[in-house]
Amino acid sequence: MRFVLASASPARRALLRAAGVDPEVIVSGVDEDQAAGPPGELALILAEHKAQAVAERLALGAPTAAREPTVVLGCDSVLERAGVAFGKPTSSQDAVARWRDMRGREGVLHTGHCLIALDAPGAQPAGHRSVSALASATVRFGTPSDAEIDSYVATGEPLQVAGGFTLDRLGGWFVDGIEGDPGTVLGLSLPLLRRLLAQLDISVPSLWTR
Questions:
Q1: Does the annotation count 76 as an active-site position?
Q2: Which residues contact 110 (CB under 8 A, 6 or more apart)?
Q3: What are 92-135's pLDDT values in tens digits?
Q4: For residue 81, what are the β-bridge partners?
Q5: Of 69, 149, 156, 161, which has fewest CB within 10 angstroms of its CB?
Q6: What is the pLDDT of residue 70?
Q7: What's the pTM?
Q8: How far apart, in whole angstroms, are the C-alpha atoms of residue 155 and residue 175?
Q9: Of 40-49, 94-103, 125-134, 140-149, which range is least confident?
């Protein structure tokens, strides 16, 4: 089965590869600024938009008779603090201000997941099947000094990720703990993904490449 990741996130791809799945990456091109809503709802909406955009592109790109069974995964992450949604910082100044505000506090990282199965000819049921769900985890931020925050932001890493921090790279130094699935904070919850795959009658071992 062809497994397509509708995301350019290195963390999501690395997490899948470590779990035995070697995804084909096709970036959706969805404008994240065009969606609105409460933080959790926003993450799920964007995940669905990304998966749908890539699924439609794949459906148009190959004749139905030649299409192989394909599953498309779209994800999006949003950090919630005090009911406000935070995506990627808009500038270095924004990233610094965020870190100074959230150090020593907690936030909730929401990651929306959407799976779309494009079935091969003759498969039952035929056509597109879609499932989606939200995973959330509480993040306890550490208390980096102003100098540490400035140095972290200067690396450019916070500007590339939702909430302005990572767990598996430099930002991990400044996270004290996680309540929930750590994969959610990395951008993809494997336990949730397994449950979504099961709803589409796809077994996890059938996706393993090793």
A1: yes
A2: 39, 40, 42, 43, 44, 77, 78, 79, 80, 134, 135, 136, 184
A3: 999 999 999 999 999 999 999 999 999 754 444 445 799 999 99
A4: 84
A5: 156
A6: 93
A7: 0.91
A8: 17
A9: 125-134
Is the bond into 182 cis (omega within 30 degrees of 0)?
A: no
Question: Would you tell me which CATH number, out of the four given (3.90.950.10, 3.90.930.12, 3.40.225.10, 3.50.50.60), belongs to the domain 2-207?
Answer: 3.90.950.10
- One-character DSSP codes across the chain: -EEEE----HHHHHHHHHTT--PEE------GGG--SSHHHHHHHHHHHHHHHHHHHHHHHS-GGGPPPEEEEEEEEEEEETTEEE-S-SSHHHHHHHHHHHTTSEEEEEEEEEEEEEPPTT-SS-SEEEEEEEEEEEEEE----HHHHHHHHHTSGGGGSGGG--SSSGGGGGEEEEES-HHHHHT--HHHHHHHHHHTT--GGGG---
Comparing C-alpha atoms, which of 81, 74, 72 is closest to residue 32? 74
Catalytic residue among 76, 101, 119, 181: 76
Q: Give the closest residue to 41 by CA, choosing from 162, 136, 157.
A: 136
pLDDT digits 0-9 by tens, 59-82:
876 655 456 889 999 999 999 998
